Records
---
Amino acid sequence: MNNTISDVIVKTMDGKDKKLAEYMNKVLLIVNVASQCGYTSQYAGLEKLNQNYKEAGLKILGFPCNDFGGQEPGTNEEITDFCTRNYSTTFELFDKLHAKGEEQHPLYARLTTAIEPKGPIAWNFEKFLVNKQGEVVARFKSSVKPNSPELIAAIEREIAQ
């Protein structure tokens, strides 16, 4: 099974293709985000992680997703505006995609089968940590906050590699 995401292509907020190989030698935290979720306040913690670790090589990639309770109904423009206005986010947000189901994006097909626990994403704000070689190395449930010691320790471990 391919444990890397480097060959996956995603769409930017303005509809351009972007190959995840562009992030080689960076540690990635990939999160399926939503604006109307009980976990939406995690945007603030994600931005704090971004500010604290971007110089060290962390990139946070947010993928809006409407698959869970219809909690991300907005357009890309509305999502960007919401995140900027409410959380002053500066990390990268991408085009909305499907994290589960028949229309599951290849990125999430790879993420959910690359590492234990394997299986479908349960809700918004699940987090996947990807090392500098593009390999998925950790998965964190929605309830794991961006400032949780286990997540920060995993990020720092990968940055130090």
Note: The longest strand covers residues 27-33.
---
Amino acid sequence: MMQPEQIQNIIAAGLSCEHLQVVGDGHHFEALIVSAEFVGRNRVQRQQRVNEVLRGHFDSGELHALSMKTQTPEEWSAARG
């Protein structure tokens, strides 16, 4: 069973993030991922990029469910006011 910190570390190692937060109960996780790599990409492309980083953990069954909110630094800044 994975912990939120493990998922956060894996994402951070594979994707340059300005902000990253992962919470969850060991089975279902939610992530807020802010990355300049998302600029010019739609929502599906952004999620595909994150899934690419986590693919091995999904394929092995170690990670089951991750809902994610992906934003560019500009979007994140605007959302925070």
Note: The CA atoms of residues 7 and 22 lie 7 Å apart.
---
Amino acid sequence: MSTLNTEPLATLIERLYTQAGEATSPVLDTVPGQERERLMRSKTDYLELYGMLKDLWLPVSRDTGKLLYMLARSAQARAIVEFGTSFGLSTLHLAAALRDNGGGVLIGSEFEPSKVAVARRHLAEGGVDDLVQIREGDALVTLASDLPKAVDLLLLDGAKALYGDVLGLVEKHLRPGAWVVADNTDYCPDYLAYVRSPQSGYLSVPFADDIEVSMRLG
């Protein structure tokens, strides 16, 4: 048994995935597909895009959530950083791993204030809010300081064009053997080129369709 598979988290997570699947974004529906693609890859207009996405959950898949829990448990993680909290589904999986590892801290970053408020309610309902600090605002600011000296796992699931920049902020804190999990990497070829380079200090492999799992080597 684990915190992930017992109450209150088990039922909460299933309920939230159902809600996520039913969510719509009337504003985003008015944006042409070509413009959506441009915004997804932009390093300057990402705040505009994620303002449009404020009603969408943008969660990791169920399998990715389980993968995050497994990696955090196997690493005996005590310090986790998450870029892109949204409504907190990935956060719940990671916080469950921290609980089962004996405690720790997860520092998350989320731009949209309404999502921060809802995510905090979900964390409290799941009984893991004592393990999580969500920093509201642009991650290039919120994750630029006051991070744990040794980070065991970094999840990248915010604005895709910023993956390399956020990794750059956290990289010096990643301990040898730390995991970096990046979702939706089809939108960030420069990030993939970096972590897959033999000179980068990572061992990196694709997982499923568009996830990259990397280990910090030193």
Note: The CA atoms of residues 153 and 212 lie 13 Å apart.
